[in-house]
């Protein structure tokens, strides 16, 4: 793409978003979508571009979480097994531009509110048995969130993570680790679904953004896994998701 001042601003914004989101195991797809929509990028390009950025960010994060032994495959498999085929179906599912943005906006606003209040909601649960220990519930969550993530072209971690916090599924960093893995496999599956319907990949536009999120994601993943306070970062992330949702809703209502 021809590099202009707006192009450099978009690249810088992608770098910063990847840094913040990756520190809590997210890919940043929601904010990438919002920024590209604001910048007037074609709808056909936006969806696969956001998923590719997700994949680049969370691949490094997932590897770091794995090295730090924070990914528990024995507990994580139901979410992954159910979500991957449903994310493909969501990516393949035909959706009109206006409908896509309305679904995305409402989903992001709800996710932002739940993410912000997840600590208080989790605390109210006391010491009751963890609902998320049930395989059937985990399969259902994985399938539902997987389809939604494929449909709206994000990895789904921003939906899964707050739910698991409320259900007290595991420690904070282990939930972030699962969210990172969940986003990775579902972004790949959702992208495969889109490509099967001849999605548009504008590499001249996408490559600079991929380089930006690669650098931001590597920095954020390392800081998040070892240094950042996850509660503060989740609050910042919730605000970013809420702004993205409101912006998309305002522009496409």
Descriptive notes:
It is built from ten helices and no strands. Helix content is 79%, strand content 0%. It has one domain. Helix 1 runs antiparallel to helix 2, helix 3 packs parallel to helix 9 and helix 7 runs antiparallel to helix 8. The mean pLDDT is 86. It starts with a helix and ends with a helix. By secondary structure, it is mostly helical.
Individual helix count: 10
Q: What oligomeric state do these chains adopt?
A: single chain
Class by SSE composition: mainly alpha
Sheet with most strands: none
Low-confidence stretches: none
pLDDT averaged residue by residue = 86
Q: How does the overall form come out from the CA principal axes?
A: globular
Strand content: under 5%
Q: Got a strand count?
A: 0
Integer tally of domains: 1
Bin the helical content.
Answer: over 70%
Radius of gyration: 17 Å
The ordered H/E elements are HHHHHHHHHH
In whole angstroms, the N-to-C terminal distance is 30 Å
